[in-house]
Amino acid sequence: MDDSAIYFLFSELCMASTCTVIFLINKKLILSSPIWTFIPNFSAMSAEIAIYFSVASLTRIVDKKLFFFGIFGAAFVALLIEILRDFLSIQTLVWIFAGTLTCLFVTNYWACKFKLSKALSENEFMKFFTMFELGMVCFGIIRISANFLPTPVLPRDAPSDIAVIIFSLYIVLGVLRYLAYLGIRITWVDPSNPSANPLNKPLAQALEEKDRLLLSLTASNRVIGISALASSLAHQLSQPLTTIALRAATTRRDLIQSGQEQKIIASIDEIASQSTKLSALVKNLRQFFDAKTSDFVPVNLQNKIEEIIEIVESNFEEKRITLVKNFKSNPLVFGDGIQIQQALINVINNSIDALVQSNNQHKEIGISLANDEFFATITIKDNGGGIDELLLPNIFDLYTTTKNEGLGVGLWLSKTILTQHQGTMTVHNDSNGWTVLKMSLPIYKLASL
Q1: Closest CA to 190 of 59, 293, 6, 7
Q2: Which of 334, 304, 339, 310 minimizes the C-alpha distance to 323?
């Protein structure tokens, strides 16, 4: 079992311990002594602490020392209640215990509602789990409110009818929460750290097969996308090569004639500059083609955009397209730089095709980069006439295309890549008839719960 399952099993054992001891006390099989009242109080609080760590362990590694510290805290509160039992009224003791337990309920609900990753929070069973946690909060509030009645509401020592109703709610919510947790483990695999358990093994295998298929499709699409730039790439590669050849010939001639040291140095400098430019371009292309696996690391987004622009800029010149850049920030994101570039290539190729088919005399593509506290956003727009409004709602669906000879894979794959990076991709036509596509990626920071 993984850590999450172990914590949840501990929680269920604690709840079973609570219910068992209370049952035995009510059946007069054991006496209501300090040790037997300490155990259910301690177990009930420990169960909620374990629930928190179980949920947290679904998406990240949790320090086990914190768990043991929490259990020690539960033991301290339960022991304090027993020490104060002869000095305080039963209502005061119930307020101490019920207040502490309700705080734990609220903490668990807050964590499930606001601190989960997007992928986990969208799981249907996780939504049910969160709802049952809210039910536990309501139980805690009811328990505290019931303490204002003339007779304390306790689950033991001949409990009243209202006590039976209230604590039946607690047991029912605990069972439903357990069933929801089983549903989570069957239907969800962490996309950032996939792992199988006996419950979700078929799903994990299916996702693994899907990922292998997607990697193959990604590699094929990468070749298709870059092939569309083949002619301009040949032109772009030939220019520095021609310059190198001419400068080499000039240098050779000047060396023979001698007495022209400054010209020789200038020629050599030009050769070095052009060689560096060519080397960088070839390196970018090699990285783009050779990527076979997904490698998530901190990525400088502006650098990745500039590398792609360097590859495609001669295509803009050939087709007389003006490129306007507007980089307002230089953010780091966490992801696979090659896959992000592939999504950019697909979008830029679509813009180029739209502009080639348009009748605009002035063809323009704008690429901007900005970020807020949580997301970096790349905006790519072109004045190629926009996308048919009937196609817009389904433009990211597989096999949907605006081109006569298009496969309808590029935008679908690009959005899939962004989704894998926990980002988003949207497209719309603005009031001026421009197509505006936005790619948003989470800013690189430490993962939260």
Answers
A1: 59
A2: 310
Is residue 179 a contact partner of residue 169, using CB atoms and an 8 Å limit?
Answer: no
pLDDT digits (tens, 9 = 90+) for 364-395: 999 999 998 889 999 999 998 888 888 888 88
- 372: tokens are 């807020």
Digit-coded pLDDT (tens) for 112-154:
999 888 878 888 999 999 999 999 999 999 989 988 887 777 8
Q: What are the residue boundaries of the structural domains of the chain, listed by start?
A: 3-199, 213-442
Question: What's the pLDDT band for 449 if we cut at 50, 70, 90?
Answer: very low
Q: What is the mean predicted confidence (pLDDT) over 349-363? A: 87
Per the structure block, which two tokens stand in for 241? 């090569």
Taking the C-alpha atoms of residue 325 and residue 306, their distance in angstroms, rounded to an integer, is 10
Distance, in Å, from the CA atom of 216 to the CA atom of 219, rounded to the nearest integer, reads: 5
Topology (CATH) of 213-442: Heat Shock Protein 90 (3.30.565)
State both tokens at 169.
Answer: 């709610």
Query: How would you write 281-298 as a 3-class SS string?
Result: HHHHHHHHHHCCCCCCEE
The number of angstroms, rounded, from the C-alpha of 24 to the middle of its chain's C-alpha atoms is 47
Tell me the Cα Rg of the chain. 32
Cβ partners under 8 Å of residue 432, min gap 6 = 383
316 touches 323 (CB < 8 A):
yes
Cα–Cα distance list, 172 to 136, 169, 340 (Å): 10, 5, 47
The 8-class DSSP code of residue 151 comes to S
Residues 62 and 115 sit within 8 Å (Cβ to Cβ): no
Confidence of residue 5 (pLDDT cuts 50, 70, 90): confident
Other Cβ atoms within 10 Å of 365 Cβ, number: 25
**How far apart are the C-alpha atoms of 195 and 210, rounded to whole Å?**
15
Is the pLDDT higher at 277 or at 116?
116
pLDDT, position 413 = 80
Token pair for 320: 């007389």
pTM for the whole structure: 0.52
394-403 LR contacts (CB < 8 Å, sep 24+):
395/427, 396/425, 396/427, 402/350, 402/354, 403/353
